[in-house]
């Protein structure tokens, strides 16, 4: 069940004025939106975000060429979330805030992920809120512009990553997608992942593909070409070569 409503929008060149009974987070990856809340007006851009508490009157007008993530947060659901209290504190007052490069990169990655997998909007929303909470609550002046680089390794939930990988083995998998699942920039994710596992993310993905393939080779009647397709190899030849390198036996012999 989705608690949140998350959309990637282009805000049009028309003035809108309203209130609503949910909190709202607005982040842009490009373009400009003029927004005012209770007499305080600023521009929402890739470098400037906005938090709108529920029931606060606000007005906005886009430039027609923006790409904007709009996250609606039902107030009633926050109490049931693990970090609901921290999220609620984000909306203790209307505010505009500076968007550091790491948060902007994450916003880009999550916007792309949302467009590719709209069904994951709830998970993507939670990652976005977690990152924003760390930045606004935990950042010190010396660390401004960085998204909580302390304790990053603790944010690599391998069980969660494994579950996601197992559902997407047939697809192209990019480091940016995995980083977004952990609310990290690709560079930080790569270095932390290697420190935690001893291998690069893509090497880990390859290992996961091959281990899943071995189960299919040994315990199913599927053709080797079909197995190769199911675990993300473009053809049986490349699959067989990778299988032999990893297991020191060909898939046909292993079967």
Topology of this protein?
Blueprint: E1 5-9, E2 16-18, E3 22-30, E4 33-37, E5 40-44, E6 48-52, E7 58-62, E8 67-74, H1 84-90, E9 95-98, H2 101-116, H3 121-138, H4 158-167, H5 175-181, H6 186-197, H7 201-219, H8 224-230, H9 236-247, H10 251-254
Antiparallel strand pairs: 1-8, 2-7, 3-6, 3-8, 4-5, 4-7, 6-9
Helix pairs in contact: 2-3, 2-5, 5-6
Q: What this model shows, in words?
A:
It is a single chain. The protein contains 10 helices and 9 strands. The chain is of the alpha+beta class. It folds into 2 domains: 5-138, Regulatory protein AraC (Jelly Rolls), CATH 2.60.120; 156-247, Homeodomain-like (Arc Repressor Mutant, subunit A). α2 runs antiparallel to α3, α2 packs across α5 (175-181) and α5 (175-181) crosses α6 (186-197). The longest helix is centred in the last third of the chain and has 19 residues, at 201-219.
Going by helix content, strand content and strand pairing, the class is alpha+beta
What CATH first level of the largest domain would be assigned? Mainly Beta
Round the mean pLDDT to the nearest integer and report it: 85
Going by CATH, the architecture of the largest domain would be Sandwich
What fraction of residues sit in β-strands?
15-25%
Low-pLDDT segments: 139-154
Give the helices and strands as they follow along the chain: EEEEEEEEHEHHHHHHHHH
Instruction: Provide the CATH superfamily of the largest domain.
Output: Regulatory protein AraC
CATH fold description of the largest domain: Jelly Rolls
* End-to-end C-alpha gap: 41 Å
Largest sheet: 5 strands, antiparallel
The helix count comes to 10
* Percent in helix: 40-55%
Largest sheet: spatial strand order: 1-8-3-6-9
- The rounded Rg comes to 22 Å
Shape: elongated
Protein name: AraC family transcriptional regulator
Keywords: DNA-binding, Transcription, Transcription regulation
Pfam families: HTH_18 (PF12833)
Domain HTH araC/xylS-type: 159-255
């Amino acid at each position: 069940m989705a608690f949140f409503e998350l959309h990637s929008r282009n805000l049009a060149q028309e003035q809108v004025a309203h209130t609503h009974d949910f909190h709202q987070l607005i982040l842009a990856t490009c373009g400009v939106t003029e927004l005012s809340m209770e007499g305080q007006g600023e521009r929402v851009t890739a470098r400037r975000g906005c938090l709108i508490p529920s029931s606060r009157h606000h007005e906005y007008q886009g430039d027609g060429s923006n790409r904007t993530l709009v996250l609606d947060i039902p107030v009633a659901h926050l109490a049931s979330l693990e970090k609901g209290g921290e999220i609620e504190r984000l909306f203790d007052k209307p505010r505009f805030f500076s968007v550091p490069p790491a948060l902007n990169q994450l916003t880009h990655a999550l916007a792309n992920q949302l467009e590719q997998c709209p069904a994951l909007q709830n998970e993507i929303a939670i990652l976005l809120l977690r990152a924003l909470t760390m930045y606004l609550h935990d950042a010190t002046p010396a660390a401004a512009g960085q998204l909580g680089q302390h304790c990053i390794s603790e944010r690599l939930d391998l069980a969660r990553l494994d579950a996601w990988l197992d559902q997407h083995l047939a697809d192209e998998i990019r480091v940016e997608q995995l980083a977004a699942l952990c609310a990290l920039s690709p560079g930080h994710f790569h270095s932390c992942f290697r420190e935690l596992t001893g291998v690069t993310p893509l090497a880990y993905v390859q290992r996961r593909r091959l281990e899943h393939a071995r189960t299919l080779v040994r315990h199913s009647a599927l053709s080797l070409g079909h197995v190769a397709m199911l675990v993300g190899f473009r053809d049986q030849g490349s699959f067989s070569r990778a299988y032999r390198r990893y297991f020191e036996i060909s898939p046909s012999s292993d079967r």
